[in-house]
Amino acid sequence: LRVNLSADILADNEEIAAGTREWLRDLGVLCVGLLSSPGAGKTALLEATARLWTGPGNLQAIVGDVATAADAERLARCGIPAVQINTEHHGAACHLGAPAVARALDALELARGDTLFVENVGNLVCPVGFRLGEHFRVVLLSVAEGGDKPLKYPRAVLDTDLALVTKVDLAPHVDVSAEEIAAAIRRVRPSAEVLAVSVRTGEGLEEWLSWLRGRAADARGGSP
Amino acid sequence: LRVNLSADILADNEEIAAGTREWLRDLGVLCVGLLSSPGAGKTALLEATARLWTGPGNLQAIVGDVATAADAERLARCGIPAVQINTEHHGAACHLGAPAVARALDALELARGDTLFVENVGNLVCPVGFRLGEHFRVVLLSVAEGGDKPLKYPRAVLDTDLALVTKVDLAPHVDVSAEEIAAAIRRVRPSAEVLAVSVRTGEGLEEWLSWLRGRAADARGGSP
pTM for this one? Predict the structure, then answer.
């Protein structure tokens, strides 16, 4: 007997993710996944987005971490209803899975036009292989991580729809520029869409909101 | 038929790691594992260590990354012979495994008194569960990652011997101090040994070298 366990787990995950994606699309809810290393600024980006958001719809979130409910609490404080999943209680602590995300949807009250963020465990490797039902996936790469990360973690760039170079205010203090990271991203994926942002200075946030608003409007107007 | 595949893989890994650990101890070689998020400064720390190292013995390294040979090349340029393992060619891309590390040893010429670093894939979750033959494990946490990472990734602190808070020169530019991160580490593990370092300013490097020299001297004088 030989069982390709890894392939089976991926197939099950993909099937549940496809169901979630379709259910959210029919509901008119945009679902955006956020992937990054620990501390690249996923939660800080959502806090900044909440401060500036004028619609369409409301922002909600499902957030994954190995331990703590810190991120859900941060998001709740800035008006984003959020469900925390602690992966240490699941099979693989290193990434969210589609079944846990599907169950977390029950705890949210989603309405047409809303945007649902799914913030993954901080990890630039494992989350990439597991779809969760997102319509778009965004990878965040902080300038503080250095310029070589897109080359070292190519799937994080290849399998996502938008790359945000974050914490660009730190560029003068580290030996790398946002342009260098964008160039490394485009070496892996020449057609990559890249935005440089800083939640401290506000740089790039209007472009990020514009990207998001367009997709939220499309989702709201999508198939009923 | 039910196979606890995950437990089997861990048991095999642990057995090979124990063999490596013993073989290196008998050889009088200190083996230090480095774990961190992507871009916390593992390779930069080794470059700085190479510049300041006066013995005992020489520094050598085995470095893991999903893709590229960039780190081994950086280390070779500063005089550390290094073997690169690309985990994208192995079963699990997200961490080094003891079998690959054991094979990589063949490519190095280790001598009594040497220090061998094993730099893992940048990932604060998966590498923690897989011993590689290290006598000591060091976790690096960059101030740029924020103050909550020890709480969110508790095993990275619990299962390592020394925590280095890195890039402390960036503290004035981010909303977190080295002391805050050290306090979070000690909330998870009150007895944790913590050093604050910056390879840009040199802060804390003498303490790090002193920690390392002591352990290298112990290893050299160990059982024949």
Answer: 0.94
